[in-house]
Amino acid sequence: MKQQIHPTAIIAPGVTIGENVIIEPYVVIHSPHVILEDNVTIKSHVYIDGYTTIGTGTTIYPGASIGTKTQDLKYQGEKTFVHIGKHCQIREFVTINSSCQENTTVEIGDHCLIMAYCHVAHNCKVGNRVIMSNNATLAGHVIVDDFAIIGGMTPIHQGVRVGKYAMVGGMSRITRDIPPFTLGGGVPYKFGGLNIIGLKRNGISLPIRRELSKAFKLLYRSRLHVDEALERILRELPPLPEIIHFVEFCRETKRGLMGFQAIDEEVPEIEEKEEEESKSIAIFR
Question: Is the pLDDT score of 163 beyond 50?
């Protein structure tokens, strides 16, 4: 199939357009530096600007704005980039701004689902297979690791990192880092334990989940200082890659970890049970 470009689309001279690209009515590609790789679909009324690359098989839905100038007032016209990976779904009215500071990039990984009205700001890095539900918003310099899920109406503060396989509940307010493999939500933010359903779906075995559960309990249920809890995790648990990653994430945090404001409250122990795992957790969708 050849390119299908509607005659009402406005495309700057010099735009790179791959094979089997579909560009629907009233699309505006304002910058000659845009690259659309093979099998990309740009639906009606999308606006694309800047040094933006959209990866193979990605679909951009109506009303989205991609690659426009950052909202950071420090921007002084530097050359910055947006890179969207392969086979992503960028839904209606999503805004993905360009970066700030010379030669920096806003990155969206492969196979991501960015739902309607989400916002990704300057200098953000979003990993592979990330899901952002409607109206989730990332401020500048946010990192979202692979397989993370962010619930709807959830703002994430500048410089925060969300760990891989973490699930953040809708209508939360995230001001500090979210450790990998965890599930939580609310204001103030409280953890329910591991994201067990997400870990099972992605092939994380039961023995690994059990060790991660022990690590989580040492960090959040033992009432130990963070540094002491992390030392005990390394000392008492097997050196699985997932355990090492959990500890390194917590040690490398720059903004601190979410959840410790609720440490003094009574929190029931969370045990992994097959009948509980099969239940849907509606507030985290």
Answer: yes
